[in-house]
Write a structure and sequence with these properties.
Blueprint lengths: L2 E10 L6 H11 L3 E10 L4 H10 L6 E5 L13 H11 L5 E6 L2 E2 L2 H13 L6 E2 L2 E5 L6 E3 L6 E2 L5 E3 L4 E4 L8 E5 H8 L13 H4 L17 E6 L4 E2 L4 E4 L15 E2 L4 E2 L1
Parallel strand pairs: 1-2, 1-4, 2-3, 6-13, 7-15, 9-17
Antiparallel strand pairs: 4-12, 5-15, 7-8, 8-16, 10-11, 11-13, 13-14
């Protein structure tokens, strides 16, 4: 399954060394939807730097580069896409889905198929499917969870059983560094307090990605985003995994993030 018409916003705080990640991320977007548009929001006003971005992304014809300069903290750049989404939600109803990405998160067609299937399976609830960021450790080439720092026990977590082999569970650490919403979800978001930088307990940069995560959470759940898993294989659905390209957490021995093997993330 592919998305009908996808609008993607990517925040890129200019760093020449990170262009390689941005290029990889943008190269995948055309594979995710029948129609798409990509908006890269950057902070640099230097024309040479802007041309460098354009040259690296020239293979993405449906791309618009927008400059936003904030006088406050640099992390406010992550919020610059919200007025764009809000305006286009009302002025251009052709977009069926809206995705916000940090500049180093790789989304594949398998991820989209997982999300669309999950959105259908969870449509009678207030929940929606979520992703798990992972990184590859350079020493053993294994995949490690970027944001979930402790192994999880399925029976002790809030969850929904979909079939004899498939379920969705709720992680106490639901951060995924991005969000994907359809029109219904985005309308709910902008009509709620969740679209304010003051909503929630995360830091300002992380709050830009939280979407509906903590809005009207059902009783006994941590958040509204759930992660798919196979009960027979006793593992997270591989299509729910999205790669954090820099892998800076998994390869930093002193950082608590990126230390739990994906294969051992959930015990069922």
């Amino acid at each position: 399954m592919l998305i009908e018409n996808l609008l993607v916003a990517i925040t890129f705080h200019y760093d020449k060394n990170r262009l390689i990640y941005l290029e990889k991320v943008c190269a995948q977007i055309s594979l995710l939807a029948f129609k798409h548009k990509v908006i890269v929001v950057t902070n640099t006003q230097d024309e040479n730097s802007l041309n460098e971005i354009r040259n690296r992304l020239k293979s993405s014809p449906s791309l618009e580069l927008i400059v936003r300069v904030h006088t406050g903290h640099q992390y406010f750049l992550t919020w610059a896409h919200h007025p764009i989404f809000k305006e286009l939600l009302t002025s251009d109803s052709n977009f069926s889905h809206y995705m916000y990405l940090e500049d180093d998160i790789l989304i594949t067609p398998r991820n989209i198929n997982y999300w669309l299937r999950g959105r259908h399976e969870l449509q009678d609830s207030s929940f929606y499917p979520s992703f798990v960021r992972y990184e590859i450790n350079q020493k053993n080439c294994a995949k490690y969870s970027t944001d979930i720092t402790k192994p999880l026990r399925f029976k002790k977590l809030p969850h929904l059983i979909i079939s004899a082999d498939y379920a969705y569970f709720n992680s106490p650490q639901p951060y995924q560094g991005m969000y994907l919403m359809d029109q219904q979800m985005l309308n709910e978001y902008y009509k709620s307090p969740a679209h304010s930088p003051d909503f929630g307990n995360w830091n300002i940069r992380e709050k830009a990605t939280q979407g509906l995560t903590f809005l009207n959470v059902p009783n006994n759940f941590f958040s509204r985003n759930l992660i798919g898993c196979s009960l027979s294989k006793k593992s997270v659905d591989p299509d729910a995994l999205i790669e954090h390209l820099p892998a800076n957490y998994a390869n930093d021995e002193n950082n608590p993030f990126g230390k739990v093997l994906i294969d051992k993330l959930i015990k069922i």
